[in-house]
Amino acid sequence: MDQLAALVSVLRGPTAGELLRLVLEPADVAPSAWKLEQVYARPGAEASALYHVETPGMLLTLVISTASLTDQDREAMGAVRAESAQGTVHIWAHPVDPELPGLLVVEAGAEVEAGAEHSGSGTLEERLSRLLGEQCSLTELRRLVLRPLRRAVYRAVVSSVRGERVLYLKVVKPAKMPGLLQRHRCSMLIPSAADAGDGILVIPEAPGRSLTHHLYRPAPSTATSGPAHHHEPAPHIHPKTITSALDSLMPHTLELPARESPAQRHRSLEPGAIGAGADPQRVRELGDGIAAKLSTTPGPVVPTHGDFHPANLFLDEPASTAKALIDADTVGPGYRVDDLATMLGHLITLPSFDRAAYCAVPDLARRFLAHCLSEHDSEDLRARTAAVLLSLLPGAESSDQQEHYLRWAEALTGPLSPADLLR
User: Fold this and answer.
1) How confident is the model over 169-180, as pLDDT tens digits?
2) Which of 50, 74, 204, 391 is in Cβ range 3.0-4.6 Å of 262 for a Cys bridge?
């Protein structure tokens, strides 16, 4: 096991609890319970984990990361350095983050003390009021995503004389803001975005409903003595409706920096999967299978979304027209087949969350695969889809779900035909 995989194992195991107690002891706080939310391992970079820690009278969110920090960083953040046999880690309390200064503004509504001349200075409400051109108040704020050192996403409800509206706030490294604003201008389907300062990107709510929402059909709740209830059928979605969203990406997308797809970096994904508990031999054999099937000429370089999955594609109510593409962070030049593999890989994962509610997904996956194979090589598409599943494996919520991802990835690189795979 290499160092990254070993460190990921530490972040997932009981040693993490000892580290959490270590950071709280100087404050005379004893954790009564702790829970790992997620581990985020970046191949070739740091691994970070998010924990919810219960203490008498309060609930804390703590981060343990392999990121390198200077003495000055640690002092400014109140971070603690800890050594283990697997390497050095740092521990700090959210919403402090060495790369995401906007977290403090969003979570605490803190005034920006330094650089008051910055056009984005002030509380979150003041910043949103300036961007919207009218006085508004924040009536609801809910965190949806937190990836330490990388990004956070919040759903905000603001109220003004014009009523209530929903905004999404994405907190990123401030240096990334110009590139993100440029990516949001690459398609008419990508919602507009504005800079609120300190790496806070403000995005209006997208029109329509996500593809995930269209496909999710839970059975209605009913009393045990009531009549049997069935799942409402999901709409019949044509694969062309899905791929039409990619056609909306404009030619100037090709001027942006390229991003490596999971297929291009699949070998570097293996340590994260092993550290998450997957069998090392199976993971390495999967990597060999992906390498054997990947094409070196998968097609021309075209505008791509880079993270084209069901939650990022919004359709109208009949699910017949693409209405929005969200999460434009990865928009840039690439291969169309990688976007298609990302969509197919995520479709494959959905039944592992709720097989009955996503019962319509296998049929859509079959039809989507057949549509893709009319223009793309079968083995190459299968290998790229397997690489997507490998990239998702560390985020699996259970051992059963992890097995679902791994088993499907192995099948995609195996001898079965595409038709057999999705029966």
Assistant:
1) 999 999 999 999
2) 391
